[in-house]
């Protein structure tokens, strides 16, 4: 059994119920479990690997609760830089329809590298786009993530219907038939079931789990929504979807059921502790109450919200109601970064913008402790896990260390944890340990070949943009179409 001792860590934030803070402390790991935390631990030296914690700050690894790995190969594309959600999606789908398995693999490797390098040790990914019958692209993600060692919740999403009026616009503006980009209900249910059987491990300390859900709520087919939820419950998995809600969603739900989306989801049994909703940028007080009374979780992606012009989400109001608010970096093409620590900083600041939370003053602003709780404890709750998110004896050995001996943190160490989000000029972890495996040490990425990961991603981007130009005649590298 592998044994690991992190020696004399300068600052340790356990993120446990008491918010325990320790100094000059050791963490001893056996296999994939934290065995002891304390000063000057006397551990037999035979066969033990020692990591020097001097000058470093330790935290439980961050938990990223909303992402779209595959989008990493269409980041910062000029034609998509100024689009709101549906405008951005129009050109995005035009590019993504050309996506092949090798592209998904390249994007997954890149996503994992960025997350590990910025303190994330567990991530979900919401893979919902399977164009032209490529129903098993999710397998490519699971395989690549497992190779690199990130703890992974792969949500086998789906798109049986497309958002808003995008099918019409795809045909008119890009000449693309949207029917080739969506899946049939039968294909979705069959492949979701297959994915659960192949990859879902509900045991303690598991490295792969599965969830399901549509990218946009399928008001057209309540039976399908119920079947997805029943499948997830049967396998002890989770459900997830985007729920801003968009104006077109509210209109569609009202016309069909004379309800708002939250009321409808509650009425069909899609609201409980095993369900999470991304964005919630337009949730009303009544809708937050529905989430709270059903125990549902929410995930915020503040960089994406600003990137696509969403309203500031009611995260403070959700937290006040006891709703677990977690943090996700969101897709590589709508952020356009997988910088997890950077997302914590953005989360802390965006909710201080004047007018974003009527009736809330500086005394309610998020502080460093609260955003780190969102990224650890609440992230674990969102993924329905009790084995990650804290540094405690008996918990999973997911630990990140940040070196505090650098100019960006100088003068800021009266609150070392706060320094990570208030200060700093890079967000790179010194050491990342996942399931007891050292994947980054002293800033060196050990999990894979970073140069190859970078080159593969760039090559995939070049191929996809060349193909979309050939098909549509549109040069995505230009600012204007």
UniProtKB/TrEMBL annotation:
Amidohydrolase-related domain segment(s): 58-436
Pfam families according to UniProt: Amidohydro_1
Keyword line: Hydrolase
Source organism, top-level taxon: Bacteria
Name the record gives this protein: 8-oxoguanine deaminase
Taxonomic classification: Bacteria, Bacillati, Bacillota, Clostridia, Lachnospirales
């Amino acid at each position: 059994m592998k044994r690991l001792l992190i020696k004399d860590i300068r600052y340790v934030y356990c993120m446990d119920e008491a918010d325990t803070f320790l100094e000059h402390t050791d963490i001893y790991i056996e296999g994939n479990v934290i065995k002891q935390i304390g000063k000057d631990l006397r551990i037999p030296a035979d066969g033990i690997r020692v990591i020097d914690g001097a000058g470093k700050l330790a935290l439980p690894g961050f938990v990223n609760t909303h992402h779209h790995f595959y989008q990493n190969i269409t980041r910062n594309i000029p034609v998509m830089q100024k689009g709101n959600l549906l405008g951005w999606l129009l050109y995005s789908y035009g590019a993504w329809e050309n996506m092949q398995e090798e592209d998904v693999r390249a994007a997954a490797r890149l996503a994992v590298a960025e997350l590990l390098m910025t303190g994330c040790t567990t991530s979900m990914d919401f893979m919902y786009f399977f164009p032209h019958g490529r129903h098993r692209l999710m397998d490519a993600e699971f395989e690549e993530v497992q190779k690199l060692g990130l703890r992974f919740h792969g949500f086998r999403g789906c798109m049986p219907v497309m958002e808003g009026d995008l099918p019409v616009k795809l045909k008119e503006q890009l000449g693309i038939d949207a029917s080739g980009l969506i899946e049939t209900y039968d294909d979705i249910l069959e492949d979701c079931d297959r994915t659960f059987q192949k990859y879902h491990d509900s045991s303690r300390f598991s490295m792969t789990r599965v969830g399901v859900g549509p990218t946009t709520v399928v008001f057209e087919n309540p039976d399908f929504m119920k079947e997805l939820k029943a499948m997830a419950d049967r396998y002890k998995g989770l459900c997830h979807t985007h729920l801003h809600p968009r104006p077109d969603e509210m209109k569609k739900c009202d016309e069909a059921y004379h309800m708002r989306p939250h009321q409808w989801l509650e009425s069909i049994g899609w609201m409980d502790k095993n369900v999470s909703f991304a964005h919630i940028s337009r949730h009303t007080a009544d809708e937050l109450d529905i989430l709270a009374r059903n125990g549902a979780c929410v995930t915020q992606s503040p960089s994406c919200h600003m990137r696509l012009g969403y309203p500031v989400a009611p995260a403070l109001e959700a937290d006040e109601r006891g709703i677990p608010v977690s943090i996700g970096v969101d897709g590589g093409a709508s952020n356009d970064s997988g910088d997890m620590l950077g997302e914590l900083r953005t989360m802390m600041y965006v909710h201080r913008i004047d007018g974003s939370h009527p009736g809330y003053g500086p005394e309610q602003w998020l502080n460093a402790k609260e955003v780190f709780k969102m990224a650890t404890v609440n992230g674990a709750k969102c993924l329905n896990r009790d084995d990650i998110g804290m540094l405690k004896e008996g918990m999973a050995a997911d630990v990140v260390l940040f070196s505090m001996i650098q100019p960006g943190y100088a003068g800021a160490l009266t609150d070392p944890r706060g320094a990570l989000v208030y200060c700093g000029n890079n967000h790179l972890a010194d050491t990342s340990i996942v399931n007891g495996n050292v994947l980054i040490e002293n800033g060196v990425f050990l999990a894979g070949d970073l140069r190859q990961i970078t080159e593969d991603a760039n090559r995939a981007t070049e191929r996809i943009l060349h193909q979309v130009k050939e098909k549509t005649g549109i040069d995505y590298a230009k600012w204007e179409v």
